[in-house]
Amino acid sequence: MKRRDFLCQGLALGALLAGCGQNSGNDFFSSATNPTAPPELSPQRRLLPQPGVVASNNGVLELDLNVVLAQNKVGQSVLTTRTYNGLPVGPTMRVKPGDVLRIRLNNQLGANDDPIVNPNIPHHFNTTNLHTHGLHVSPKSPQDNVLIAVEPGEQFQYEIRIPSDHPGGTFWYHPHVHGSAGVQIMSGMLGAILVEGPLDSQLAALGIEESVVVLGDFHVDSSGQVPSLANPAVFLGSTTSIAVVNGQTQPGMTLPEGEVHRLRIINGSAFFERQLELDGHQLVVLAYDGLTLPQPEITNKLHLSAGGRADVLIRAGLPGTYSFQAAAYDQGFGPLPAQPFFLLNVVSSPAPDTTILPSLLPAVDLAPIGDGEIKRIRNLTFEVLPPAPGFPIGQFGMDGSFYDANRVDQQMTVGEAEEWIISNTSPEDHPFHIHINPFQLMSVNGVDLDSPRWHDTVLVPRNGSVRIRHRFRNFDGMALLHCHVLLHECQGMMQLFDIAPAQSSRSERARRRAKVRLAFRQMMGTQNRIEEMCAPRPIRRLRWS
How distant, in Å, are the alpha carbons of 135, 159, 294, 478 from that of 143? Predict the structure, then answer.
């Protein structure tokens, strides 16, 4: 019997509703048998406001994402931001393994009015594309190719094929053009991707409902607009950060006491780590980065780096009002105050829910990477480098240089496994993210984890390090690894990597690198012609004789 099948059976055996009164944290789980029917849903329930949902039909999800400048009321402010379909947060995509995402990205923003002076100074904020963060899909067009640029007035038809054995979980999408991604994400251009899987079926059988919780933050000036990032010192000193959930400020949800609810949490911030807590409640973690754990983990405070996700359960406690918030925290650039996200209102119930949850989960079906499988060990370093000409502050780079789309920094091979040690010599935390394949987190600051965990985004602490292991499965092609503080990525803290096909020769790998350089030169030549055509013409002055 496969380990995954065993765990799934363990789930089925473990699920039951039992006991009287409210369960304490100690009896939240059970391995008992004899499951019973889920309880009737209480009419007192009022869930968080949710983004619109687009679901696949007959194996295909069809969606138009129109990138437009739009006004939305967020809290007491009217904001003018770049949006998907005119809304403060993008729609949720709900799909199954084996489905195809057909997404037409239509860029209806105005022309860029700033020339590219330096590619590692944020620029061209109206150029966009699409990245399906965390999905194990091909990095080649028309799939998750983040090296393309959809210019204002252009469209691109994505067709992203999800493998039939893809794990179920919580993923997300956002723009990824180098130079503009930060401004666009802090405008609200992001949304959830939910891939259905065994965990969903098990929780549904227990009558447990769910809410998507997209945590974001708008960074706006006094006029309610997201300004240029080209001068970060001015940007950070002159904008107001508005913390939002699903595009709203401090919405509320109501649950009857004892009810268990699932939160699919996405930290969609362009800047901030989150130390998440719910007053008076424990958080039961089921998955990190869309990858289900073998067993639930109970915590009072959940740390999510920018780009990270977690699926958690909460059990509504005693009647009252509780704040779900990010606790005060300093990630290296000064202390941040606590930021409330939503309020949980718990109402009394004559028969509190006593759902007891299984102690085993249908863990992601990825075999651990053992010592004997490692083909190569690499060392990467996040660091602060001297500023570029015309840039007001030190810039963030990797391995002594900035991102260069004309250069392949790392080259791997399909089917092989590697171990990477990622160090951070800077005074700020940096979340490491790599596209296409997840990795196994082995240790933090030299201390091995008791049980290595699968992630696609992990925090590298300031003046610290992490050790991870990858297995580069199924797909060859070019993609990116970077810091997921998008201001840092736009300044150059990113590298281009190439997963070469198995059995490729040294000369074939060299040709692949040369192809990257040629494509970059062609793209820049096209961009320069566009800028020349759009540039204002000089005024001809007449001479009078």
Answer: 11, 5, 31, 12
Instruction: Please give the CATH topology (third level) of the domain spanning 53-204.
Output: Immunoglobulin-like (2.60.40)
Domain ranges of the chain: 3-37+214-358, 53-204, 371-527
Torsion over CA: 21, 27, 29, 34 (sign): negative
Q: Enter the tokens of residue 21.
A: 């009164």
**Hey, how many other C-beta atoms are within 10 angstroms of the C-beta on 415?**
15
For residue 508 the two structure tokens come to 């074939």
Q: For residue 377, what pLDDT is reported?
A: 98
Three-state DSSP state, 167: coil
For residue 167, give the nearest of 455, 472, 500 by alpha carbon.
Answer: 455
d(CA 144, CA 133): 9
**Pair of tokens at residue 509:** 């790998």
Q: Where are the beta strands (DSSP E) in 274-388?
A: 274-278, 283-288, 291-299, 302-304, 309-315, 320-326, 329-330, 335-336, 339-347, 355-358, 374-385
Say what the pLDDT of residue 544 is: 28
Q: Which residue has the tokens 């900035």?
A: 402
Residues 286 and 268 sit within 8 Å (Cβ to Cβ): no
Domains 53-204 and 371-527 share a fold: yes
Indicate the helix (H) or strand (E) that contains 439. Answer: strand 439-444
pTM of the full structure: 0.88
Helices and strands in the chain: count of H runs, count of E runs: 6, 36
| Residues 512 and 496 sit within 8 Å (Cβ to Cβ) | no
Alpha helices in 206-322, H assignment, sequence order: 232-238
Map residue 510 onto helix, strand or coil: helix
Phi, psi of 26, deg, nearest 5: -75, -25
C-beta of residue 358 within 8 angstroms of C-beta of residue 202:
yes
Predicted pLDDT at 542: 27
| Predicted local distance difference test score (pLDDT) of residue 11 | 35
Predicted local confidence at residue 513, as pLDDT: 63
DSSP 503: T
Quote the strand ranges of 175-208, DSSP E. 191-195
The reported pLDDT for the residue numbered 228 is: 84
Q: Per CATH, which fold does 3-37+214-358 belong to?
A: Immunoglobulin-like (2.60.40)
What residues of the chain score a pLDDT lower than 70?
1-43, 233-234, 236, 390, 505-506, 509, 512-545
d(CA 536, CA 397): 34
Q: Which fold has domain 371-527?
A: Immunoglobulin-like (2.60.40)
Q: Which residues contact 21 (CB under 8 A, 6 or more apart)?
A: 352, 354
Cα(167)–Cα(307) distance, integer angstroms: 18
Give residue 317's pLDDT: 94
